Amino acid sequence: MYEKEAENIEIPQHHNNGNVLVKEAAMDEDAEFCEEQGDHHAGEHINNSPQHHNVSKAGNIEGESDHEREHIASLPQHQTMEIGKLNTASLGLFGRDEELSVLRFSFARMMETKHGSIIDSKLASKSFTTSGSHKELFFIQGISGVGKSSLAKSIHKAVDELENGLYVEGKFDLMISNEPYSGVAKAFGSICQQLLSSKKEAMAAVGRMIANELHHEMEILLPLIPELKTIVDRYSSLTRQPTPSSNHVSIEDGQERWKYAFRLLSRVLNAAYSPMVLVLDDLHWADASSLQVIDYLVSDLQNTNQLMIIGCYRSDKVFGAGALLNAIACLEEKQDKYSFHITEIELQSCREDTVNEMLMAMMSVEDEKETEELASICYRYTSGNPFFVLQFMLMLENESLLTYDNELQKWMWCSYRIQRQIRYTSGVVDLLQDRMKKMPEDVQLLLQYAACLGTSFTLPTIDIIWKDHQIEYGTETTDTALMLKIMQDEALIEECGKNTFRWVHDRIQEAAMSLTGNVAASASFKCKVGKALLSALDEEQLEDDLFDVVDLINRGNVATRPELAALNLRAAVKARSLSALESASKYVEFGAAMLPRDHWTFHRKLTLDLYTLGAETEIALGNNRAAAAYCNAVFQRDDCSAMEKMPFRMAVIRKISGGDGELKKKALKMCLDTLRELGYKFSWGRVLLPLQAMLTLNSTLKAMKKRMGTKTLDASLGEMTDPRQLAIVQLLERIGYLSYTLELIFTSALSFCHIVDMTLKHGKNFLSPFGVANLGILSGIIMKEKFVTVVACSEEALSILKSVPPLKEGQTILSTYGFCLCWKKDLSVCIKALELGYQSSMRAGDVEPAMWLLGMYQILPRLVSYMEEHYQYEASLIMKMLWQGLLNLTTGTGRSTHLEGSIYSAREPLRSSGSVQGMAHLIVGELYFSSSYELAAERSIKFGDTFEKRCPAYFLGMQETFHRGVALYVMARKTKKRKYQARASRVRKIIKQWVKDGNPNIEHYDLLLDAEHAALKVTGYDSEHDGKGPKGYDAIDKLYQKAIESANRLGHLQHSAVCNERYGDFLLQIGWDKSGWARHLSKAAGLYEEWGAVGKVKELKLKLQSI
């Protein structure tokens, strides 16, 4: 029973959170008062206006303005107003003209079409442009119920009307805020469902493309987006490929794997659906991993299709230093660099006149004065919040304070009675709870259970919980389906799929959850639900719902039970495999807290597994104090073995390996110390290291050749399974990498020898191919081993690669095709292999070799941004150098022989390895070669084979050596000086050996240098001679012609130009065949122009004009 209020009610003018509930039952005096006033105050207390029923297909009512019709028509879910029912379809967009204009502007800018609507002068002052990016990021913030979702949905119709447009939604949830990628997974899952339900033949082609293009990534994506399995089963023509186990992939590499997989999936989908609009609702509940996905998608330079992401979040749930606001700030800094736009708007509550428009639309009233007083009451109690306005009106209807008269065909109310019988509450949740508390007790209880399951739930899941409730209390209760029907009728939930339901609004879910009582009671209730699911679900179901179950248990569990600690470890491992590090960190923290006091004695493995994952996760997140706590808990125990400490040390080593030189040295020392702890002797000492390296290289190569006597190395090897041996091999690989970057070549060589020795003695492992390939390279550098041996090592490495996990596939391809086989195989074959290596490295999350591989076969300005995004300083620096070098060659700007310009300045300090300095040397040499043969020859004498020493075996060394030879021969012929001739002859001899070794890419090198060498003996042409040209001319002519034909056949545009230039210059020098030298120099100028060397073209044209 409601307490009776005093008769005089004073309505406050405005309350930001002024929410209301009915105060008491209808009072006779109120009814009498209304009846007395009705005939004389029509429209003042009771609405007496006629009712209009003509409704359009979109739910529009005749008498509405064109603008209102446009608002309602833009909604994706259309409904027809029923007589005697309040029309609620259009509430969300009333008073949102300005915000709709901004949203449409962003959409039009993405589509690059002319935007016709007028924008408010305040908006017009902002720097909006319609050119450039095809990606838009649109954030809508505001308090709960203000209409954020309705505004986002307003674009649905415009997208659907486009032939290949796609609009999908994903929603995050407070109840499962630790579940990684929940909203993103729902959005991508929805895309898959739409694809599977489509009957268009074009969609079948998209399905086949997804299945075939992503078959390598399926094992990564399936746990997150299970709908992909149906697509694969239906459309794939390929056997699913194994992917690297997350147990062998570092956390940092795992993050890159996920970035690559998400981007590849979005590229494939966005290529089929363009524009693609993703709406992510309740972004304030999103986990950090989901916020990273937004970054991955909008900053993907390789996706050039139209993509718009709309994020909605509650402004009262985010704070100054929160993860969401930090993520938005980071995205704002990136938008220019990665070519996307960000727009942010904040929705406010509606004005009183807008509330009046809402009421008129809800009750189909045309005269605004008839609803003014009711609107005023509604506004004072709801502060103009659209969702609260709706709940307020539904409350009035439920309490018979607002009724529909079928005879008069109009809505009737008494303003005086409404004011007398309502009271203030603290929020809309209380208003909703009041409605819920009037439902049957079983329905109220089911509402609480359903609220624990998140924004959506299924009938089978709620049945499990309800049956557990029946068993616990031993009572017969109402049928679940019947109670869900009651909840639907009360507009609390709605069906969103077969046996699947969702809450109409998140505040309704919050109200249902609050029925449990205080915080402690609510937590206990959730824990009960989680344990019920844990006991009822089978293993496959539990794996699908693991995060939900664990989150529910963690919210209310206070017991220290090892089985629950193990459950949290399972969730943490799954989160880690999804690269959701923040979620993994929380699960480890919960799991560690649930360990009993005797956990080191009776649950040692569980403890070590939790602490190891905790240390790795916190190190990756940069939480050094938390990481140190996990590490010290193990390091300070005397009973922990070196193998038990090994994962903790490796986590630290991996982290600091990416630092500067001093950190790399520290990481190298840690590796060597850990090897000693494991009882493995690495070297004889610093003094004897060079000798040991050469002796070990020699003995290891002999052992390999002996093993390869009758069959391939791969066929003769077993599999390494011993944990200690695998740990040693991983440490050796780190030593090899660190020592190479620190230019400790003998230490690096020794480490790879040890890897190969371990492989020969104990079997192959995922690092064996990488070790064998690098053994070949280093044997050629240090031992000057024959080229055939180096190539044999590369081929054996690729053979072993087929039978081990592909964790180091990219690095192995880089070592083989990038440094060895490019000297043996056609470059087109090598480029294809390098591209496959890049893709493999990205799948494994091994970014550093991926960037080097990418730079080898594709040089574009955007690669600099791509490499900087992956924090690859050295690779991006080299790309900048190459870019600047190409600009100097192709634009003729800046000093032609200086690596200087807007992209890169040689005056910048090179705080990098010898590789970067070697590349700088190479690029400057190319500038000299294209500018002045004389300067290039002098530079060759001064620096010699500096590039080969700094970047041994690198494929660009072929071209660098050839260009040195050409410049030296030019000056040898011009000056007749021995210093040029001797060095030119040495270069020619080197290239002849490469040809003899079987290099198919340098035939024109050999031919041109032979021609240049033969031309040294020709002094000139005597016109009184027999008219057949100088002595030996025919042989030289054939060599030049063959060199030109070879360069053309191999597609080497620059070298075809060089060959023509040198032939024309030879003919000009000897004074023979004037039409020939002019023809070849003109041909060279044309080829240089096609290649883009502007400075060289100017030089040749001036030369032709001056002769």
UniProtKB/TrEMBL annotation:
It comes from Cylindrotheca closterium. Gene3D superfamilies: P-loop containing nucleotide triphosphate hydrolases. The lineage of its organism: Eukaryota, Sar, Stramenopiles, Ochrophyta, Bacillariophyta. Coiled coil: none annotated. Transmembrane segments: none annotated. This is Orc1-like AAA ATPase domain-containing protein. Residues 36-69 are annotated as: Disordered. Residues 132-310 form the Orc1-like AAA ATPase domain. Signal peptide: none annotated.
